[in-house]
Amino acid sequence: MSENRRELEAGIHVELRQGSTYGDYLALPELLAAQRPVTREHDELLFIIQHQTSELWMKLMLHELDMAVTLVKADRLAESFKIFARVAHIQRMLFEQWAVLETMTPIDYLRFRDALGKASGFQSYQYRAIEFVLGNKDASTLGPHKHEPVIIAELTDRLHRPSLYDEFLRYLARHGHDIPETVTARDFSQPYQKSDAVLEAVRRIYQDSSSHWTAYDMCEKLVDTEERFQLWRFRHMTTVKRIIGFRPGTGGSSGVGFLKKALDLSFFPELWEVRTSLTP
């Protein structure tokens, strides 16, 4: 009877030098040493890995959204659609990760929660950057990063840049849609305010989508992105409620109540409202 094993093929590289391996390329020694629990509680490692992997996915999501903005600015709208397909899968990964954290019971978390001190997910600068690129501009959210010059500089720059939606509206203006200059040349550091003129331009795109297919398709991809983002927000809120109930957050917020308010924010208001005014 043959042994229950697989013979290595002769061509497989087993004589390797340092600096040329899988682990070297991925910086695995540094990556796997980055989990540094401060207690001896079993579930703290889960908590750390959950948030570190979320940050890695957010890094990729930000990388992709920045490319989408670049393509929209260059009038290469159709090319951005592949980016949105990838962003969709990244968002799905971020959403599904909450299921792993939900295996942690309230008591499991309370055993190490005090060790977090004032640390909170609200302080994630990558999350803030994603919100800025999607259009949720709020200068007051920069506060937690004042002690980090490099990060505050990057976020301040992003605060003043046009968001993805701003660039799309400028694209529409360049392509003959009636988007007013008060929208295309506004102060981009301020939250976007819904415009009746934009709503009417979007209504015309939706009402005759066959004549404006690329713009219409982009509108739907933006709606998809916001819907998934809102589902992620909701799952976050529900996970927090499941684990800590209505306790205040470690970062000083009211906790669930503060997270719930985010569900009322919209990145692309006209793209949602237009559905109310369409006719057959």
Describe it.
It contains 13 helices and no strands. It has 280 residues and is mainly α. The termini are far apart. The model has no long low-confidence stretch (mean pLDDT 95).
In a nutshell, what does this entry contain?
The protein is an all-alpha fold and 280 residues long. 59% of the residues lie in helices and 0% in strands.
The total strand number stands at 0
Secondary structure tally, helices? 13
Overall 3D shape = globular
What's the average pLDDT?
Answer: 95
Structural class: mainly alpha
Largest sheet: none
| SSE string, helices as H and strands as E | HHHHHHHHHHHHH
Helix content: 55-70%
Tags for this entry?
280 residues; mainly alpha
Task: Outline the fold blueprint.
Layout: H1 22-25, H2 28-32, H3 44-73, H4 77-101, H5 106-110, H6 125-134, H7 149-160, H8 164-174, H9 181-184, H10 196-207, H11 213-244, H12 256-261, H13 269-277
Helix pairs in contact: 3-4, 3-6, 3-8, 4-11, 6-7, 10-13
